[in-house]
Amino acid sequence: MFEVRPKPGLVGIVGAGGAGLAAAQAMQARGVPYVLWETGSGLGGNSR
Q1: How confident is the model over 19-47, as pLDDT tens digits?
Q2: How far apart are CA 28 and CA 30, in angstroms?
Q3: Are 31 and 11 in contact (CB under 8 A)?
Q4: Strand (E) or helix (H) holding 35
Q5: What is the rounded CA–CA span in Å between residue 31 and residue 36?
Q6: Between 1 and 38, where is the model more confident?
Q7: 9: left (phi over 0), alpha (psi -120 to 50) or beta
Q8: What is the pTM of this model?
Q9: How far apart are CA 12 and CA 35, in angstroms?
Q10: Residue 3 has what DSSP assignment?
Q11: Closest CA to 31 of 9, 5, 6, 16
C-alpha cells in the first residue's frame, strides 16, 4: 500500500478506461495538471 498526498491544483483521475482517458484529454487540452491512476498495465478499460 502507498500513501496518496493531495497536491493543490492537481486533478486525480482514477481509471484509464474510456472515461478516464477522455477526462485526461480534456485536462491536457485546458492546461490543467493531472495524474492518471490505473491498476492494470493496459489502457482502455473494458474496450480492450
Answers
A1: 999 999 999 999 999 999 888 777 676 66
A2: 5
A3: no
A4: strand 34-37
A5: 15
A6: 38
A7: left
A8: 0.71
A9: 5
A10: -
A11: 9
For residues 5 and 11, what is the distance between their CA atoms, to the nearest angstrom?
Answer: 12
Give pLDDT, residue 26: 94
26 phi-psi bin (left φ>0, alpha ψ -120 to 50, beta other)? alpha
Residue in this structure with the C-alpha cell 489502457, named with its chain if needed: 43
Question: What integer pLDDT is reported at residue 42 of this predicted model?
Answer: 75
Distances (CA, A) of 12 to 15, 27, 37, 48: 10, 10, 8, 23
Cα separation, 32 vs 24, whole angstroms: 9
24 grid coordinates: 485526461
C-alpha cell at 7: 497536491
